Amino acid sequence: MRPESELLLCCARSSIGSERSDRIRSLLRDGIDWTHLLRQAKEHGVMPLLCWHLTNNCLDGIPQPLVDRLRDHFHSNARSNLLLTEELLSLLDLLEARGIRAIPFKGPALAASVYGNIALRQFCDLDLFVHASEVSKTRDLLISVGYQPELNLTREREAAFLRYQCELLFRRDRVVVEIQWRIAPRYFSFPLDYGRLWERVQPIALGEREVLTLSPEDSLLILCVHGAKHVWERLGWICDVAELVRVYNQMDWRRVIDQARELGSERMLFLGLFLASDLLGAALPVEVSQRVLANAPVKTLGARVRERLFAETDGVRGFIQSSLFQLGARERLRDKLHYCLRLATTTTIEDWEFLPLPSSLAFLYYSLRPLRLVRKYGWGLLQRAPDPFREIRVIRGKLFGACNPWRDR
Prior knowledge:
CATH class of the largest domain: Alpha Beta
Strand order of the largest sheet: 1-2-5-4-3
Distance between the termini: 46 Å
CATH architecture of the largest domain: 2-Layer Sandwich
Radius of gyration: 22 Å
Low-confidence stretches: 384-396, 402-409
Oligomer: single chain
Order of helices and strands: HHHHHEHEHEHEEHEEHHHHHHHHHHHH
Helix content: 55-70%
Mean pLDDT: 87
Number of strands: 7
Number of helices: 21
């Protein structure tokens, strides 16, 4: 591991002890590629934490121009976060005035409730969860106050998009608002009971206001599912889990695990907890830690995340590897099969742009999408791979493990 990566791991937490401070100073004395470090910190969403710890605990050994640069980064992020928090509160007031219930999550809500300081978390958008039945009403309201939708869809395509996808993005000046009505796209097979989710919301202090956000138990599971969906490619997401566990260590762990098992997402939950513990030293309850460490697939996936966390990725192979990772993160065969089927047939914006069809022929997309995916990813992968059938064998292994269901049937 490069010293810059180890330094990020040391700083990716809201507080550091004397032992970790000593290790940071040792890394600084041995020499750091500052350009590489700052680029990685920004990409991994931990720039505020890096700047905070280096400028408050480890000034010796850092040239003054770099100290000034780190402080500028921190203050710039703090100003941006304050502006986004003000905008979030204004949007919540606007939505409430129109009778629309919205739950802020991640962004300022997570920074305030888990980090204890909105300046310590890096975020660049506002996430709002609304009822699926109120997405269109929310969209129209945002447009009426100057936000522009990222997508311009016909009514027919918007209806399809709402059925299968999970979020819409809006922009106004430098503010990005993400409206979500489910946690993951339909193909991801995460059938969360959203009615119960709304019943469990809890108040937190945000500035001088009190707002409702997700319960710690729901937040933990959703953060772990979000991380698995994105192959845990950012250290900041692991840091979110570690900080949430630190603050809410007395949460109802049995409820979290039971809910994850019911949803077929226990492996994703355990993977997030494993990474938070293994990489950032998050202290898990003994019983939870034992169950996490006893799960062999979780440890295998965790090793893959650690190996790739600070590595450069390849776009073509990235899609294939991401899909295989998401398959491996599911423990139930039926969820793996649903994932493959829905991923292959659920139409997206790219499919519509690849071949625009009239509404009367929209059913053809179910056949065209697999062909487009093969055209975009399949041939290049087969041509470049030393063993072109390796990926097929890997997929079979992810689906069925060591058994052969056709032979054993």
